Amino acid sequence: MQSRLPPPVPPQAPSQAKTAKQPWRGGRLPQSEVERRIAHLLEVAGREFAARGFGGTNLDRLVALSGVSKTTILRRFGSKEGLFNTLIDQTMVAIRARLAAVRFDVEHPRRTIEQFIDAYIETAIGNPLGHMLLGVAILERTASPHLSRMILDQAREGLRPIADFIARLMERGILCRADPMEVALDLQGLMTQGFRVFVENPAFLTRPGRSGEIARRFLKGWS
């Protein structure tokens, strides 16, 4: 008796969807994978710079931790300093965006200044990278004076929104007339309290009621 098995099914080419799921098997990396690895490198570098500062961060260690070759790092950033500058730019963009988001209301000076203090401490000091930048500007200024100057210039730009607000308060006679940026730097000094931010537990920065105390002292001193 003749078997009635179904006819064999001819082999089909793999579908495009299945082909797309195949892992990368060598050759030039897809651009998406390159960008993913660079993003990972920046995360690793951010942690290392925050923990060790600029001078204490080793490029070979970044290679080992990130899995990104030194050749790729140098091709993309030029040097360790180029990588550090990229992190500065990214950090300052985030800080400036947060500070600019404060609602600057001349009808409520103290409340506005308190909100700015909270935002500044959250992003520019409480953030590990922001804290690191402040540390590099102060503690490594002898070894890397150009970095200190660049960070100071970036910090001034970060204070620009509050300096502009201070100028408006001066126009209304609420604050004494002076250089608004210098007054903004006075406010920054009240927030960081100089070297205290480096030698004491940074929890003091976010103590309940602290922003109100600083705003009160600032307004009393400049009114």
UniProtKB/TrEMBL annotation:
Gene3D superfamilies: Tetracycline Repressor, domain 2. Residues 58-77 bind DNA. GO terms for molecular function: DNA-binding transcription factor activity; transcription cis-regulatory region binding. The keyword Transcription regulation applies. Residues 1-13 have a biased composition (Pro residues). Residues 1-29 are annotated as: Disordered. Residues 35-95 form the HTH tetR-type domain. Keywords: DNA-binding, Transcription, Transcription regulation. Pfam families: TetR_N (PF00440). It comes from the Bacteria. PANTHER family: HTH-TYPE TRANSCRIPTIONAL REGULATOR BETI (PTHR30055:SF234), HTH-TYPE TRANSCRIPTIONAL REGULATOR RUTR (PTHR30055). This is AcrR family transcriptional regulator. The lineage of its organism: Bacteria, Pseudomonadati, Pseudomonadota, Alphaproteobacteria, Sphingomonadales.
